[in-house]
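FORM 7B - TANDEM STRUCTURE REPORT

SECTION 1: FIRST PROTEIN
SEQUENCE AND TOKENS:
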Amino acid sequence: MGRKKRRRRSNNKISNLTNTILSILKKERNKSFNYKQIAAKLGVNDASSRNQIIKKLQQLKAKKDIEEVERGKFKAVVTTQYHTGILDATSKGSGYIISEDFEDDVFIASNNINRALDGDEVEFYLFKRRKRGKLEGEITQVLKRAKTDYVGVVQLHSNYAFVIPDSPKMYKDIFVPINKTNNAEDGDKVLVSLEDWPEKADSPYGKIRQVLGKPGEHSTEIHSILAEYGLPHDFPHEVEAYANKIDTSITKEEIAKRRDMRQDLTFTIDPKDAKDFDDALSFTVLENGLYEIGIHIADVSHYVQPNTILDDEAYERATSVYLVDRVVPMLPEILSNKACSLRPNEEKYTFSAVFKINDKAEVKDQWFGRTVTYSDARFAYEEAQAVIESKTNTIPKEVSLTGDTYQTKQDIADAILKLDELAKKMRSKRMRSGAISFDKVEVKFNLDKDNNPIGVFFKTSKDANKLIEEFMLLANKKVAEFVGKKKPEKTFIYRVHDEPDDSKLAALQNVVGRFGYKLNFKDRKSVTSSLNNLLKDVVGKKEQNLVDTLTIRSMSKAEYTTHNIGHYGLAFGYYSHFTSPIRRYPDVMAHRLLQHYLDGGKSANEAIYEEKCQHSSNMEYLATKAERDSIKYMQIRFMQDHENEEFVGVISGVTDWGIYVEIIDNKCEGMVRIRDIKDDYYEFDESQFAIIGRETKHMYQLGDEVVVKVKDTDLVKKHLDFYLLGKHKE
């Protein structure tokens, strides 16, 4: 019996032998193999299997699929064209490759994925057949791993361990030898590094680098989010020490090299909980009917010098990361919250864009350069908003940072009101040029001292926010134009945004059509105006968040590059990031390049800066994912305390395994699994964005209002599951 079983197992390995041998030879197509090496790769060593391999090799040679390069040694005949692309893996171990060679994504079945993981750059070839109309291929090799570090929960056994990754896209558990477990205890959340994936091993081998803590605990989960995306937590000791030794005093010698604007009326407007103020506005009424408005930005590049450990660290981070309960800054606190922060009643080194503007909000003159400034006052957005709404200089205690009603100086109140008036003109001009107005509602949490979420509130953009936004946009645009229009062309850091893809717009129309909205695709102008109308029409409606999110997703992603193509969403031909160097490295680079050109310098090396732009775009993407994960985590924690309550939600997504529901009151999104809906057998209807009951024909469709109750909250996997109680009857 034992022998029969063994033989059957060995025959399984030999079944479909032609494809297996071809796959081995194609995968390493520059090498030649004899029958023994192929048998070893297949893990068989009995005579019968070896004979079959020898026979198959001769058959493949006769068909000219392989060639015998020397006696008994065979190589694949490569007629196939190989392509490269990026793998988007699924939790089932299959995936899709996004490749510039094909308009459609290429499906890869799990048995053809060949150890590639999500995000890897891979080489693949296409099958001749198209399965159900879609392209299908096989991965031949991994060219570059997207990541080697994963967060997961460790399962300890007597002489080995497994780490079960948190990410649903990591379809394999990671094997860890007992001597590489780093004293982790069973059930700990850990950071594991992939080290090897032996040919015959089902799972990759790894080493536990860090024990993050017990799953579900707040600090463990927040650190896990940072670790998952390879984002830092603390500054290395030597970087902190270097930053602490920097001379941050304001000296006469340095002031003498700068334009002195300390006498100009200057103030900051920021979120009430902000610690780093990286921009200030100055306002002076000129005699010729013009206003001189200065946009003053923290002069980070004065302190952060190239080729220092501080600059290297800032570049690696490339951005500050804003999680629900903390900021992971790009620069150490001595700079971000102190020396570079434009705090009230302190002299600061700044880099400024100063404009002379008329009452029509037209720029009549401009100046860029290093300055020294003095901020006369600091306002929270809510305080500036009170001035705009009341048209007085009184700040009521409800919004006051001090908690008491107070009066700001009349000349500051007048400045805020004039700046608001000019900002509204600038904004309306932008909208007429085809800019798109994204005012997406932001979800924020009220946290207690232990970081427990005790409430949810929505942050919306009011006039005071838009005032600051318009003047920052003006500075960013004018700096980019100043350098970008120089002849001969000079290398610079641009923030670009490509036009949306037609197919994505068509998909958006398909969804918003369900709610009765129509988009016009006749030309660029009609696309932007119909998108703006859509975003305006949904304000306050139940489907607003869904439509806002889908519209943003239909857009291209903004990114950093030295190749300017303009900014579609803002309708600007030239745009850069200049106004936030405390929290964004591209702004630091923009400051350095601008100063270099003001000093008459030659064009900088484009290839070097393009690489830095790509790194900055990539880090921004990871930071955004971490920020989203932290919001999702906090939403799940919030819902843990509301397990027996009923909520009204909107169906925000429909799949063949269930429906996603977003609660209207708090924007928390969870899933109702099809198997949990008991009143019928529901099937997914892709064309209608719906699930439909087989017997009752009862339909749950995208955008429907439904009533749900919490079924399960999983902080570790960041899953929120609902029970569906039925449709909402108003």
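SECTION 2: SECOND PROTEIN
SEQUENCE AND TOKENS:
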Amino acid sequence: MVSAPVQVAPPVQAPARVRRLPRWVAPVAGVVAVVALYVAFRGKAVLPHDDDAAVFHWLNDARDWVDANRNSSPIFLYVVNYLRLGVSEIYTLIQGALVALGWPGLIGLAAGLGWLAGGWRIALVSLAGFAGVGVLGFWEASVDTLALTLSAVVLSLLFGIPLGIWTGRSPRVRRIVTPVLDVMQIMPTFSYLSPIVLLFLIGPASATFATMIYAMPPAIRITSLAIQRVAGVAVEASESLGATGWQTLRKVRLPLALNTIMLGVNQTIAAALSMVPLVALIAAPGLGVDLLRALARVNVGAALIPGVAIVLLAIVLDRMTRAAAQRRDGGGRARVVRWGGFAVLTAAGLVLTPVLAQEFPEQWHVQLVRPINDVVEWIETHWYTFTGFVNDVVAYGLLNPLQDVLTSAPWWLITAAVLVFAWRVSGPVAGVIAAGCLVGVAALQLWQHGMETLTIVLVASVITIAAGLALGVLAARSRWFAAGLRPILDAAQTMPSFSYLLPAVALFGNGRFTAIMASFIYAVPVVARLVEDGLRAVPPTVMEAAKSAGSTDRQLLWKVQLPMARGSLLLAANQGIVMTLAMVVIGALVGAGALGYDVVAGIAQQEDYGKGLAAGVALVLLGVMLDRITQGANGRRSPHKKRNA
């Protein structure tokens, strides 16, 4: 019997592998398309600035309606006016109490609180700090600044801590509150001065409200985080014993979260102190008035001294609240020593108040204005060639070409380019929000000034991020360099933003580059710190494994540390850009122009109120756009992870 032949199946062919285009093709094609469209439509649909735009008149009419109905509308009669009077009374009460203590009593109270918070070291810092304010010759103005700061901090904590507790316990509330806090923190400080003045007029009340808006977000965020971090085991144990929700909150959650909440208090005070000088623009008393006068006279020494006084107040309040947050309750003896030291120091100051003069003795003042101005004059004389060269290089090499492109390109092309870029970098939601913000700037009739502001912000951000990245890398790789850099960064972060303007004016004159340099000094400390923290957070085991594989220091940085610190680097870029925007706006006071000038003009001149208010909204839109792009990029997976997914 013949067997049938065995049929062999044909070999299965593997499916043809689809060749993917290199990753760089799409971005390059997009850039080419944008350039081609720019060349084709350059100078069309550019939306030039118009000081007589209809939206400005509409906002002026709204202001006139508010002024006409301030004493007749129920909203103002029974809500807004009472809020203004109530906040004014809080400020008057605190300011009166501080003045009544006299300079010896206030110094003694500060030293006593320092002893209570952290022992003799903090007491010595508090005593030296407050005495230094008097020696600088700014005691009365410093008391007004302290009163305004405390008023804003009290209100911020009064509303911020309960709201933070609520958001910490409720995810639904947290989802609602978080976007509002994002906008409050992104918003440049100038942006809400106009609406605050419209509602509460000029003076301490409006200044307190403006400072409170700026200072409240840290209190809410950190309190919420503290409540969320309370161990679930402790909460479950309390509930299993029959405790109600209120009892668990009061006896378990709050005590365990207290130290972190105190850090929130610390950050709220720091934010309030940084804002207080700016509200001098709306007739707030204090050191900001001296800063504005010095700015008007271009007197660098007269501007730095009140800035140093604010730094001293900030250092004292910072050390005091940090020590209170880190304090561990000792036994009964330690408690007696703390309260005893507080009582002795405070009593000593109060006893000396009627004995010594009410005002800080003028013969104890140290005159530093003239020496500082002599140094500035020497720098202007000997460095003018170099500073002028740097100014011209940045202006003609970066600012002017970029501004020409942004202001001559069609508004729809820039909006589409931002939409695509933000979509690719941060996702579709960020892309739509970013494009919507630009549409809003166009609708406000402020496109040209918006692009001029964006030009300064982009150039300043590139310089700031590059310098911050370099400093952060050096600090992360050398503890000696980090130790030397830290006090410089501390001083730069504490100094009020106004104080940066005049040294920059002395070096570079009035103009856009002055605002860039001031924003550089203001923002680079935060960028450098975040970069350093991110690089130091890379696990030592990963570093050791890379070293054992033969990686050089350069390979270790570029292929291990920087990729693993991607989140911190993107956060550093985000914070650098947002802080740069805030400072560039203040640069309007030294000739930076654009939207910042519109806001200042709206505050100073009644006929420009509508333009100033619209410019404030446009600044918020630009801030939201830049924030969404950079913050959204942090939530996207890196290309390396995408390829390995």
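SECTION 3: OBSERVATIONS ON SECOND PROTEIN
The CA atoms of residues 359 and 387 lie 43 Å apart.
The longest helix spans residues 74-118.

SECTION 4: SIGNATURE
Preparer initials: ____
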